[in-house]
TrEMBL record, chains A, B, C, D, E, F:
Protein name (Swiss-Prot/TrEMBL): Asp/Glu/hydantoin racemase
Family named by the database record: Belongs to the HyuE racemase family.
Domain of life, source organism: Bacteria
Gene3D superfamilies tied to this protein: 3.40.50.12500
Pfam families, per the entry: Asp_Glu_race
An annotated Gene Ontology molecular function: amino-acid racemase activity
Length: 247, 247, 247, 247, 247, 247
């Protein structure tokens, strides 16, 4: 029996989806297939509130319109909005890479820190920690000043930037580092070598945690916050057909 | 000199937009015009996470595509997502009715409580209070079990439901009550009469607070969380043309 | 119909009362009259706990003894004690400039910071934020090392000091600045020009927010923390005659 | 060598001062003299914000005007304002009975609860816990509906009321009870007998803790919040002569 | 390549160790071996602070003295002390079932609740949540009044007790339930059937999360809280030989 | 009538026990005898989680096996685990020097800071503050980089290290300093002289606070977290005989 996990990229860049799915597949168990999902609309990268909120809707739309069966969804937008909506939308387990990375970091160290892309992404990460309930374990969130779209242009330079910013985060009191962007996926090993601390790649961990929940037969709770929506609502707008029809 | 305030309904029901704009206009100063805005896409009412997140994107799209000048935006979706995105999108003051109602309640009492529509809306309100930073002042959030779409069907019955649930909230220790849905706008006076405590209608207060910020010449801060997005991003999707082109 | 707002200075310096009332009047709507109130006793300036607590009593005494009718009270002592007592004392809306400034800052930015006069005033401001429930939104409180009594001696030098300390507060992570003393009222525009971020003058905002509550017919909640005192208590002391007789 | 501790009643009722000083003296070590201090002005009892804030000023005035030397001050107003001001005013240790009772309760149990006089006193107690930093250890604060002035009228009835309300507090999850009024001083032993849990009388504990700090040669810190005021300020008002002249 | 996970029972009951290891093995992937570890000293069950703290030391001693290689440790004492010590002691990943269960619950619902054995275990669970940093997500912790040693005596009666207490926890606002004792391992499926919400068995989840960290090559951070101890300390006591010699 | 207080050293170094008991005796009232207790097993010093958790068990074992009567226990391991277990074990008052020092610091200043021995001890101190509920009053915890075992080797050098680190803590915003190791006991006066702020020695304060609780007849609450253990449990392990037999 195989497990299928959708790795939902938050932006519309298919190359990034492919990269995320690749890292996720590498991290997965033998029997797991990781399928990348790219939203049909929205920005080519998400680095702030406007883009984050648009992607939240677009990712739900994409997953709702996904024709094939799947066992879990990994939401591959670090610090981005939407995990609660996805949990209301579907019954399968939903693992946000922000949550997975933070929870893994809490298992590996006493205080963690986060390195993200641009300063504009930091406030949304703080909000995500606040509603997640783990803000007290975080010592700092810092930006490496690398645009999402530029991560892969010069991977050595990206690694250098993460190393430098990572050292600042460790100096803030962290003993474990979280990679604060899905685009950084796969860089954890190199950074562990450079920094000498555990470095958590949320995509990899989220795939493993999603597998874990699937293997144990767990489903999203549907008696409270994530109870299905009323079926009889009107929905306007051409692009949301799948979302409208889903429940 | 007149002030124009956009009152952005979060759902696609034009009747509700009209009602919100009407209450907002009644609450406004003589020189203020309140203009209702209805998203072009999304659900006919928002009562949970899926709908809330879709409306966040749709409301930004609607405001970005609004052709005429305006001085401030009131976001008339209680507990709904999106205020941070709107603040990044535009430079004019943005007042979420959740914030306005909560801040007014903190000025009028020591501990407040909220009555909303359906239980599915409660978790999102808690999240909104958490990121707003005022959760410690809130004693309880309760649902009157009135669907947004049914509020106006029998206004006396809605008032009765709010009164009953309001009494439970007061028994939880609140000395001021917040109406937890834009659709309840205009019911504050009747409920004050029945309950003997201040009852805050976020639409009315938000219009007044938005006027205040405009009158004082205040604009949204653009050096941190709400700095404008990079202009060169690709945007996919037919409905987001205005949003894409805005900055 | 006109609205009368009492702007209660916390110290006994009539020149500062006049300045506060002047800024408040400038900020007010056309139909509003701002009337300055000066306590009959207490210190000539409040920059720490002893003075703050004395002014809390003296300001209540002054407002209780105010002979003419009024519609709301603005408490013009930033970070000073007393707002809860005033809310118990009277039924009209009470707006502390600390609250008004903080709430406005939360509408204009994601994280705020405060510049106050002397270091001795900082702890009281932290306490005020703690009971207000918004401490989590504040990044730092710093002192410009300008005595209250010296603010007006050399306004250019005061502005320079605020600018320098303001830059340090912004470097702490704030994207909006709050002026942490009623004596700084009127300097917000100049500092916005210098710093490029929204700068909030609590006196101006408090007058506008108080007008808002009056216009909407709101009164302080009287069923809990602010229920009237028992009428039959003995009061000793010559200066508290008005306070004793008020209810 | 004897130790002199001022037990400062917060109200102007000399009988209550005598009762407080009596309980304090009974609780004290052999070498300690407890001297009651009664404010010269203010209310005959404090059961809410107005009265609490007036007593804060009046108690400082009374202690500042106390002619004889003393080694420490116990502030015998449970949940009342003023401890921070007293710490700025004098160099000797200052122990608020709220603090002493709460700290002792934290040593004797895992979660405490408080029984106070009237509901109007509860919000101020919550504020005191918030600035003290121990709110998380408190399970509930409940009122026995006994006016301060009526405590001694029928001591058996007062004990019955405390027992009943105390049982409700224990049912809220507390394993130690705090007497939330200086007027309850001396009732702890009887209530321990009835309820089977530790019952903390703040007056007794505060006297002991104050003795402890004196014995160890401790003084209030004067480099931060409690640094002395500037000496050159003007003070208006006949009753505050001692306060004005103190530093 | 196989993965070996030590499942460390916190008490000295070998039957419970066998049961825990059995549930863990059932939950594990094909290539994983779960090896039960029983402390050589300490209580036969842990239901409060004394026992919890003894087991923390005894479990470290048992793992330190474990002769065979292993890849990770699962600490199978719900709410018990010790995870931080184990993380300092060894370099392999350490997963406390309290953490694993809580993190999984946060992925499956919006607010969780916990059902434990006896009331005496509740305070330690609250402390564990406090240091873990997720207390804000927990709605209630309740005891089923089933002694650890009696869980297996009548498994139907245990399930009934968990169901009843679980319903109370759900009524407190939880939408996912956590089994608050390693001895409850294996009852999650039956309770899900009865209660209609996700029920999390920490042993099963912890094994899966430990596997995940091992598969991804993660190790405990050793630059901060969990840096190895100084090697040159004296250790007294016959039973702690292995612990003393470990580093 | 004399009072006997056990001062329980957390490590197995009898010289440190003697030093602690000596400082405690010097701080005590005339009628108090301070008796040092040394655990029979465990590490010669505790500077991190492994050692802290072992000492928690060993100290309970030592006190449980103490043959002579006593009136209270002072737990002389700063930031170490175990106070809750001791409170469950015995009925007499238990005062952890961490609690005593922090509570005294809260009475003497507005914000405190802590100087401890090694960086490895800092995380445990943060955890202790978190469960104690006073973390919000603490500005920083810093290590002087002095091993516990080296404190007495060169007391002048130790004082110099504390002074330097203490200045850094004061610069972090503290106005009172806490000595974060029982081994620092007795250095408070010298550091007060050098730093000009109150410096709190937890051993001295804990002895005084323990005396206070004894004098007032207080006992640990036994209806909740600290209710006695079930008597019928099996205990394995030769060294825990006294602990097993105690209740």
């Amino acid at each position: 029996m195989t497990t299928t996990i959708l790795a939902a990229n938050c932006n519309t860049d298919p190359a990034m989806t492919a990269a995320i799915a690749g890292v996720g597949q590498s991290a997965a168990s033998a029997g797991t297939t990781v399928v990348g999902v790219t939203p049909a609309w929205g920005p080519s990268s998400a680095e702030g509130y406007v883009e984050s909120l648009v992607t939240a809707a677009a990712v739900m739309d994409a997953v709702a319109g996904h024709g094939d069966p799947f066992d879990a969804v990994v939401m591959a937008g670090f610090g981005e909005h939407g995990r609660e909506g996805m949990r209301q939308l579907i019954a399968q387990p939903v693992v946000d890479i922000t949550e997975a990375a933070v929870f893994a970091a809490c298992l590996l160290g006493h205080r963690f820190g986060i390195v993200t892309t641009m300063g504009s992404a930091i406030p949304g990460i703080h909000d995500s920690l606040a509603t997640m309930g783990t803000a007290g374990r975080c010592r700092s969130v810092r930006a490496a000043d690398v645009h999402v779209s530029a991560i892969g242009d010069d991977i050595a330079r990206t690694a250098d930037a993460l190393e430098g910013t990572g050292r600042a985060v460790l100096a803030d009191g962290a003993d474990v580092l979280v990679l604060g962007c899905a685009g950084f996926a796969g860089l954890d090993v190199e950074l562990e070598r450079r920094l000498g601390v555990p470095v958590v790649d949320g995509v990899a961990v989220a795939v493993r945690f999603a597998e874990s929940l699937v293997a144990l037969g767990k489903r999203t709770g549907k008696t409270g916050a994530y109870a299905p929506r009323s079926a009889d609502k009107e929905w306007a707008g051409p692009t949301l057909g799948s979302l409208r029809a889903f429940v």
